[in-house]
Specification:
heterodimer, A: alpha/beta, FAD/NAD(P)-binding domain, six-stranded antiparallel β-sheet, five-stranded parallel β-sheet, 25% helix, B: 181 residues, mainly alpha, 0% strand, disordered C terminus
Chain lengths: 540, 181
């Protein structure tokens, strides 16, 4: 193989869009992906196969991360922090809640000036600079119900009317969630429209309606004939050259040993934890930034569930028990709060609340039925199963909130634990900032109010304050200088001439929505800059 | 351990299965049957199949483990490389059940009556019986998790025979979504 022009490490939301754009600009691009490439023919609805047997992430004994709640504690091996080691990364099994960031997300440092111990950073470019890339991503992926999209929103379940009415009474917004799910088929792209099996999260899509990276940007890249895709290949080190130049990447390929590949440009898009880990594994002096691995954030998470009893709603909502279509409502989008609530909670915003039916994995639902209310087995368990599945619908409200980056949350290299290749594992140190508690409280209370207003019974908080570790960022964040950030506004790592970061690691703020769409839009923005810079005529 | 939303979406197993991956703790008290009565594979299998039938009994309220083929599914996991992390606790737990039956004068766990089988499982769950090689509550929870797998899995995996559990609970992953009617 001749040396490619560009090496992209990771094929998820941060990597695939860059590969597509640079291939389309005429560059030869090598994508290095740690995992295999599953296609739509591989995807079925086997819960044991896909959800319960380490299909997307490595087993903790082979490729561990370690985690601790604070410095001074011993970190223990965990699978937390892996997103998904397959072509397409986490977009393969995402639910695809594709809301844009809000302008306030771009100025977190400005907003958090009085928040003690926050280490926030404003985006180094104006929010509006991202607008046309949001447009591109929404149109190219086929985000249904998107601001720029021509595709209509996915069809909503009758219960959505209950959510809308209850939210109005409570005084918060409710609207269909834009989803990275096609509602209009694209035969030219070999993508069918959604079949409404309503099993998006956890699974790959068997008809490519989901806007995962494989059938979208990877496919676009493949069509140029310029893409080289190495699967089951892990980048283990960046090779440093002179004057800030990265000469290439050391890659371990399954069954083929280790090889060093050289390229003009290297793009790091392995997720916030693994991208920072690779920078750290590559040794000191690679960047002038002091911030690699620091300022880690995970999307703040709450979960509240409630039950609509069949007997009470049989007449009001005849289709209550119909498993399809989606409930699909976003309440309190972007965490917008009333002036009164802002003052009461000392917050300007909280988080978005996604209303859906409890995920339709029957084994997992049965497990929850066995556990909730005290563990049981035997006839009591079967009674619970029948009630759970047959006598009502469970609504789950997932809160996606803004986490405060601070010095206590970061990744570094674990001094004791190594992976199967003998490389030091990423050690996650993470705890929540006190402001996160207040955000979570608003999300919980609003979820409870709306569920109760809907007529749900058994409303209870199942996660009071948590995080979605697969929605991760901050560790290679963009910002104004190497003292506070790792990459500049073009996505280039400070102190290097040809190394970029485009995954969630580059995002300084966790947003009040899942960040996947914003990662893609930013990757498209950075890719455009690389393409322009690399095709510019040399100065005389 | 902090909550991670990912475990719900992608590792749903974490609710009951995650403990199988954890390091065993040494219990303070050991009142397990003596280890020199190790039961062998057959005794373990019989115990697991019988225990599965108590976790999901054939009680007239829908199909039980027996009708759904759950026992064979659970035994099959012992040789399934994809479930390797489950083998240790299932083997230890099954061995314990077999030896507990012998201590009660029965030949196998299956020879205990239903009430006695339930009592052993409940005592493990409540910590009244404390095995010295594994956590009793953890074993019962993991066994319940894999029984629910065998009950509600895609029938091609060997459990949920003829979709009996799906039919009883109204779950259908095909067609235009699941319809609970």
């Amino acid at each position: 193989m001749n040396d490619p022009d560009v090496i992209v490490i990771g094929s998820g939301a941060g990597g695939a869009p860059v590969a597509a754009r640079l291939c389309e600009a005429g560059a030869t691009v090598l994508v290095v992906e740690k995992g295999p490439f599953y296609k739509k023919a591989d995807f079925d609805r086997d819960e044991v196969e896909w959800v319960r047997r380490d299909k997307f992430i490595p087993h903790v004994r082979k490729d561990p991360h370690t985690r601790r709640n604070d410095e001074g504690l011993r970190a223990v091996p965990t699978a937390d922090g892996w997103i998904s080691c397959v072509v397409g990364g986490g977009t393969v099994h995402m639910g695809g809640y594709f809301l844009r960031a809000a302008p306030e997300d771009a100025v977190q440092a400005t907003r958090f000036q009085t928040v003690q111990a926050a280490t926030a950073e404003d985006w180094p470019f104006a929010y509006d600079a991202l607008t046309r890339f949001y447009d591109q991503a929404e149109q190219e992926l086929g985000v249904s119900g998107a601001p720029s999209g021509k595709d209509p929103a996915i069809v909503s379940h009758e219960v959505a009317g209950l959510v809308d009415a209850a939210a109005k009474t409570v005084g918060v917004s409710s609207a269909p969630t834009p989803r990275a799910i096609l509602t209009v088929p694209r035969p030219d792209e070999d993508r069918a429209a959604c079949a409404y099996h309503a099993l998006c999260g956890s699974y790959g899509c068997p008809n490519d309606a989901k806007g995962a990276m494989g059938p979208t940007y990877i496919r676009r890249a493949e069509r140029t004939g310029k893409l080289i895709l190495w699967t089951e290949a892990m980048a283990t080190r960046l090779v440093k050259g002179d004057k800030g130049r990265i000469e290439g990447v050391v890659v371990k390929r399954k069954g083929q040993g280790e090889t060093t590949v050289k390229a003009k440009v290297v793009v790091l898009a392995a997720g916030a934890i693994e991208s920072a880990r690779l920078l750290l594994l590559s040794g000191p002096g690679l960047t002038t930034s002091t911030q690699v691995g620091k300022n880690l954030w995970f999307s703040l998470f709450t979960e509240v569930v409630g039950r609509l009893p069949r007997a009470a709603f049989a007449e009001k909502v005849p289709a209550l028990m119909a498993g399809s279509p989606f409930l699909n409502r976003t309440v309190m989008a972007h965490g917008a709060m009333s002036d009164k609530d802002q003052a009461a909670h000392r917050l300007d915003r909280a988080g978005s609340l996604h209303f859906g039916f409890v995920h339709d994995n029957p084994i997992h639902r049965a497990e929850r039925a066995a556990v909730d209310g005290g563990f049981v087995f035997g006839s009591k368990l079967k009674e619970r199963l029948h009630t759970h599945f047959r006598e009502g619908r469970h609504i789950v409200v997932e809160g996606f909130g803004e986490a405060v980056p601070h010095k206590g949350s970061y990744i570094d290299l674990d001094p004791r634990v190594k992976d199967r290749h003998g490389l030091k594992a990423a050690r996650i140190t993470h705890f929540h900032h006190p402001r996160d508690q207040r955000v979570a409280q608003v999300m919980r209370e609003t979820s409870q109010k709306v569920l109760t207003e809907m007529g749900c019974t058994e409303v209870k908080t199942t996660v009071g304050l948590g995080e979605t570790t697969s929605l991760q960022g901050g560790t290679c964040r963009m910002g104004k200088g190497p003292e506070t950030a790792v990459v500049d506004e073009t996505g280039q790592v400070f102190g290097t001439t040809n190394l970029y970061v485009t995954c969630g690691g580059a995002l300084p703020s966790s947003l009040n929505v899942p960040p996947t769409l914003t990662i893609i839009a930013n990757a498209l923005r950075v890719a455009e800059g690389i393409a322009k810079a690399r095709t510019r005529p040399a100065k005389p | 351990m902090p909550f991670d939303r990912r475990r719900v979406l992608l590792s749903g197993a974490a609710t009951l299965l995650a403990p199988a991956c954890k390091k065993e703790e040494k219990p303070a008290v050991d009142d397990a049957p003596p280890p020199d009565q190790a039961s062998g594979r057959k005794g373990v299998e019989v115990a697991l199949v019988s225990a599965a039938r108590r976790i999901l009994p054939s009680d007239g309220n829908g199909p039980g483990a027996q009708e759904a083929g759950v026992g064979a599914y659970v035994v099959g996991l012992l040789d399934d490389p994809a479930a390797a992390q489950l083998k240790s606790i299932l083997m230890k737990g099954g061995d314990f059940l077999h030896r507990a039956a012998k201590n009660r004068g029965a030949k196998t766990f299956a020879d205990l009556d239903a009430a006695a089988q339930d009592q052993v499982l409940q005592d493990l769950l409540d910590g009244k019986m404390r095995p010295n090689r594994f956590s009793g509550p953890r074993f019962v929870q993991v066994l319940t998790a894999v029984c629910l797998e065998g009950y509600l899995c895609d029938p091609r995996r060997g459990g949920n025979k003829d979709k009996v559990a799906w039919t009883w609970l109204g779950y259908d992953p095909k067609g235009r979504g699941a319809v609970y009617e």
